[in-house]
Amino acid sequence: MNLLKRPSVRAAAGFAGSAVLLFAVAPLVLSDFRLGLLAKYLCVAMVAVGICLAWGRGGLLTLGQGVFFGLGGYAMAMHLKIADAGPGNLPDFMQLYGTATELPWWWQPFANPVFALAATFLLPMAVAALLGSFIFRRRVKGAYFAILSQALAAAFAIWLIGQQATTGGTNGLTDIQGFFGYALDDPVNQRTVYFIIAAVLLLLIALARQLVQSRYGELLVAVRDSEERVRFLGYDPANVKLVAYVVAAGMAGLAGALFVPAVGIISPALIGIVPSIEFVIGAAVGGRASLVGAVLGAIAVAWAKTALSEEFPAAWTYFQGLLFIVALAFLPGGLASLATVMRRRRAAAEEEKKAAVIPVGEAA
C-alpha cells in the first residue's frame, strides 16, 4: 500500500508543508506590511476552523461567531490597555470620555496577565455553554438557531457602542502599543506575533482534526444527519451539539485575542452581524466540511476583501457577494470539493464513451 494514501501520512505531510509555508516561505517573500495582513487573515482562519466543526460537521449554522471573537478580543485588549497606561493610571480613552478616577470593577481582574489570557478563550466558552444549554435543550435548530445567534451578535455590538466610558464605544479599544512588555511598533516583535498566530492556527487545526476523526466526530455527524435516531440510541443530541458549539466559541475567542496585537484595535464594527456573516462566507467558499478547505477559503475571502476594497472602494462588497454566490452556485461543497467534482465528471465522460462504443458482434 502506498504510504501517501494513508490519511495519517497525508495529514502529517500537510502539516509539515503548511509549517514550511507559514514559518519559512511567507516571512521570506512577504514584506512586513503584507506579513501583518497575513497574520490578520490567519486569525479569521481560526474562526473558520471552529465553524467547520460546528456547521460543517454538526449542521449548526453559527451566524454569531463575532460575539465570541469580540469577547476574546476585548479580554486581550483590556489587559494591553491597562499595561500601556502603567500602574495607577487609567487607559487613555477613559481619561478622555469617562469621569471615573479608578478602573471599573469588572476591568480590574484583566490587569492580571494570566487571568486575561485564560479569559480570552474560557469566557467565550462559558457564554457559549450557557447559551447552548438554553437553546439546544429546547431543541431549537435550523434557521431559528441561526437567527438567534445573529441577534446575539447585534445585541452585543449595540451594548458595546453604548458603553462609551468603559469600552470605547464605537471606536472600541484602539492604539494598543505593547504586547506583554514588547513594543508592537518594532517589526521584529510584529513578526513574533505572526509566528505565534501561525502556530496557534496549526494547533487548532490539529485539535479539530482529532475531534473529527474521533468517536465524537462520528457522533456529531450522526446528530446532524438524523438527530432522532441518535436520541433513540441513548445519546443526548443536545450535549453533542453543545460540545461543538463551545469548542468553536473558544477557537473564535483565541482568534479575537490574537487579532488585537496583529492589528492594534478591536471595535464593535469588527464583531457585529456583518463580520459574523463574513466568517461563515469564508468557510462556505472554501468548503465547510473540510478543515483545509475552510481555512483556505477564509484566507482567500479575507484577502479578496482587502484587494477589492483597495481597487474598488465603493463597490467591493458587491464583488465579495458575487464571489460567494458563484462559488456556491457551481461548487456547493466549496472549493475543497473541486477535485471530487472533476473526478466525477471525468468518470461520467468515460462512461459515456464506453456506452457509445458498439460491440462488433452487435454491429454485424
Beta percentage is: under 5%
Question: Kindly state the mean pLDDT as a whole number?
Answer: 87
Structural class: mainly alpha
Low-confidence stretches: none
Main beta sheet: strand number and arrangement? 2 strands, antiparallel
Secondary-structure map:
Blueprint: H1 7-29, H2 32-57, H3 65-85, H4 92-97, H5 113-136, H6 143-162, H7 164-167, E1 178-179, E2 182-183, H8 187-213, H9 215-225, H10 227-232, H11 237-263, H12 273-286, H13 291-311, H14 316-330, H15 338-356, H16 360-363
Antiparallel strand pairs: 1-2
Explain this structure to me?
Helix 8 (187-213) crosses helix 9 (215-225). With 364 residues, the chain is mainly α. The longest helix is centred in the middle third of the chain and has 27 residues, at 187-213. The chain has a two-stranded antiparallel sheet. It starts with 6 loop residues before the first helix and ends with a helix. It contains 16 helices and 2 strands. The protein is globular.
